[in-house]
Amino acid sequence: MTPDGGAPRTAGPLPLRALPVGDHGLLIELNGDEDVEALHAELLRRAAAGTLPAVREIVPAARTVFLDGLADPPALGAELAGWRIPPLSAGDRPAVEIPVRYDGPDLAEVAALWGVTPDEVVRSHSGTAFRVAFCGFAPGFGYLTGLPERLHVPRRATPRTRVPVGSVGLAGPYTGVYPRPSPGGWQLIGRTDAVLWDPRREPAALLAPGTPVRFVPVDAPVPAPRTAPSRPERLPEEPAR
Amino acid sequence: MTDRALSVVRAGALTTVQDLGRPGHAHLGVPRSGALDEPAHRLANRLVGNPASAATLETTLTGCAVRLRTATTVAVTGAACPVTVDGRPAPWGAPLHVPAGAVLEAGPATHGVRCHLAFAGGIATEPVLGSRAADLLSGLGPDLLADGAVLPLGSPYGPSAAADAVPHTGPAAELVLPFLPGPRDAWFTADGLRTLATGRFRVSAASNRIGLRTEGPPLERARDGELPSEGMPLGALQVPPNGLPVLFLHDHPTTGGYPVVGVVPERFLAPAAQAAPGTPVRFVRIGRRPGRPAPAR
Question: Over 70: is that where the pLDDT of B2 sits?
């Protein structure tokens, strides 16, 4: 999968830099989000196969993967550099479909920034194959990548003190859905009734790193969301995608 | 459910249910949470015969008071405080047999910040993602204690530990935080790193379970801006734009965009839970353990 249109990478070592974090952590810096995804997938594969040293957390982010709870981080850091890591496959997991009413308060602003009509914002956003690059900010909040660079928008100059639950927003390279009401500075283009986070549900998070996502435009009222494919949530039993 | 329960008579300033937290979910944005003074939590449990994973109450500065509905073995550890049972003085750091209907009170902390109150059988609120810890960043777990709230207790596990006395070392006059540099120490100038190692810092009153904030000389940055969000460990010394290090405690966000100048290993974190606002703070750079060279940078 090469969202940027670049040539597919062949299997082989990834350029990376491993920085020690405290005495049990390792922060692995990579060249871009595709390399992050490829390394993250490989780490989950090895964890599932039992060939990764015991680790408490595997946290992918924008340019890094953070591993915590390692007995010997430098040893793994040295080993990683030689791993042959296969390129990402196109992905056979079905996308989680999130129904969205595209009536957000910043829809016109985003249309102006993109230089298109609001209807075209809806078409572009709902026509994009997104993927959860990483989670953070709040349980169940995924940072979704997939928008081409020309459609990246800045955060609002003045963040809102309260963004309603289910708001679908844009900021920088990301789109995301607020799993609960909170302050926030993202440009809001719509709203969903999908439950992003429910600790009584298995899995609790609708979106996890690596989950493919599509937004489906709907008129109110929004139907119940399709749930994510069931997968264990706790490391290190978490299987490869 | 049995009638084993306690009711909250005086909730105190900020009292939460805590256990060993919910590790393994950071990739979903879920903080570890759990007792800030883990040794005190473990000791309190041991004194009443509980496993370390049983949930206890963690108080903040002003203690709390609870009425036991059934006779229960309890223990108070952590910050030093006057302990009473129905108003009569009782020992701190020892198993106490509290009769049904009696009120156990942990008074205001005389040294330190956070007490742990353990009850035989543990607090038996519904676990969330495998833990009963109240996470103040993301709102997972039981609510903050409120006057009149009722919390269920589990069945006792077994006999309480035999202990004549538990020494209370008390918090030191100064909070010394050993740290390993990195991963983003290169974002600071040599002067900035010297400021961290030699500056006089104090615990800020704005500290909480998410982070211990400091007041003192700001660290000079070698470069401006933010990092792309990256994973954050427990014990991170994250430096926001005001230049003052924040020590990430158990309810810390799992990712962040401000540089981490160093990391305080987990085994040194308990004293931070007991350092009251105004306590002097000294950061001491330590080396990595011998025989484990850092990877090439």
Answer: no
Chain A hits for B187, Cβ within 8 Å: none
Kindly state the tokens that stand for A103: 């009536």
A222 near A178, Cβ under 8 Å? no
**Strand, coil or helix: A179:** coil
Report which secondary-structure segment, H or E, holds A215: strand A212-217
The model's pLDDT over A128-137, given as tens digits with 9 standing for 90+, comes to 999 999 998 8
Cβ distance of B23 and A57 shorter than 8 Å:
yes
Quickly count helices (H) and strands (E) in chain B: 3, 20
Full DSSP string of B56-98: EEE--SS-EEEEESS-EEEEEEEEE--EEETTEEE-TTS-EEE
Q: What is the pLDDT of residues B117-169, one digit of tens each?
A: 999 999 999 999 999 999 999 999 999 999 999 999 999 998 877 666 677 77
Q: Which residues of B touch A134 (CB under 8 A)?
A: 27, 229, 255
A136 to B23: CB separation less than 8 angstroms, yes or no: no
Of chain B, the percentage scoring pLDDT greater than 70 comes to: 94
- CB within 8 Å: A24 and B266: yes
- Going by C-beta distance under 8 Å and a sequence separation of 6 or more, which residues neighbour residue B272? B36, B175, B177, B212, B247, B249, B264
Tokens of A13: 């070592």
Q: For A164-189, what is the mean pLDDT?
A: 95
Contact pairs from chain A to chain B, CB under 8 Å = 133
Q: What is the nearest CA distance from A238 to chain B, expressed in angstroms?
A: 10
How many CA atoms lie less than 13 Å away from B250 in the CB half-sphere?
25
Task: Give A214→chain B minimum CA distance, Å.
Answer: 19
As a whole-number percent, the residues of chain B with pLDDT over 90 amount to: 87
Query: What is the rounded (10 degree) CA torsion for B63, B206, B229, A30?
Result: -80
What is the pLDDT at residue B290? 54
Question: At which residue do the structure tokens 């078409």 appear?
Answer: A123
* Residue B226 contacts A where some CB pair is shorter than 8 Å: no
